Structure formats: structure tokens, C-alpha cells
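Could you please review the protein record set out just below?
***
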Amino acid sequence: MGPLALLVLAFLAFSLPPYLAFDPARSRVPQPEGFPAHYWFLVAHVIFGSVAMVGAVLQIWPWLRRTYPVFHRYAGRAYVFAGVLPAGVMALTIGSQSPFGPTTRVSDIVAALLWLGCTFAGWRAVRERRFGDHRKWMIRSVAMTFSIIVNRLITPIAMVVLEPQIPTTFGGSELAYSQSVAAISSWGGIAIALVFSQWWLERKPATAR
């Protein structure tokens, strides 16, 4: 749990401050044409997404879950209703207008729908006291929450690998290169999150091996 918490803390320390200034000039995402409110939807997404990340760490912390089950429930509600739900809705909005090309737009929408869908399924399962299903769906939800970190880790790798191909594969187009990097990173983040969560669910405890 310690390394994951540190990774989330480092990610938030890097990603969050520019948007707390509420200054569009500090945005790391270009403003799409014809959508002047994009920045404010982005700020809301980042803030609510940060709540979701912190809530996810608290939710999967075994000691906290065992020792303070009531706090676990309240943290879970915050994760769903003050984190994933508003951040996911904002993601649908800004994702559909992504300046990084049509492939990334589709991936952003798919990621938001998966995030919202897994979270809703987990919330519904716990309301119906299907705790086994609740655990499975929330693990998938948490994986989608952290998929953005995977996305950011893939980006520099894709940039280094593809940059030598700008004159050939991309015909000298920096735009085609940057959109390809964004698409690989976004789809890669989704794929790795889903594969990892499924592996985690199907793995056998060490004592059973």
C-alpha cells in the first residue's frame, strides 16, 4: 500500500497545482476550438478525479478496511459520489472534445464509460449485499481510476519510440506524431488497467499454490 500511496501522492503533486490556480494559461491541455468552457470542465474533472484517487487508496487499504469498517463505508461513498461520478461525467464531456485527435476522443469516452459503469456495478452490488460482486467491480473501478497514471507513464516511452519515425511513418507531420502518441497512451492505459484488474481477481493466494 505504501508504494501505491506514494505514487498517487507524486502524481497529484505534479498534476493538481496548475489547475488550482484557475488560470487557463497554465492548463496542460490545449483549448479545443468552439468549446470555451472546456477549461472549467477540465478543472472540475481534475479536482473530482483527485478525490477519486485518494478515495481509491483508502478503499483498497486492507488495514483501514478491517480496523475502521465504518470509515471504509463513508470513504466509499465519497469515492463514488464526490469522486468518480462527477469526474466521470466531466471526462465524457472533455473527452468528446479532446484536442488530441479522433482516436483519443473515442478512447476517452470508452474509459469514462468503463469507469462509471464499473463503479455503478460495484455500488449496486453492495446495496444488494452482494459483497463478492462488490469487491470485483470496485477493483475494476479502482484500476480505471489509476489508468490515467499508466497513461502518463506510457506517454514518454511512446514519444521516444515514435520520434525517429516522424520523417517516415508520419510523413514529417508533428500533428500525426503527437496524436499517435496520445492514442497509444490512452488506449494503453485502459488495456493495462483492465488486464491487471482481471489478473488480480483471478490470481491464487500464495498459500494456495
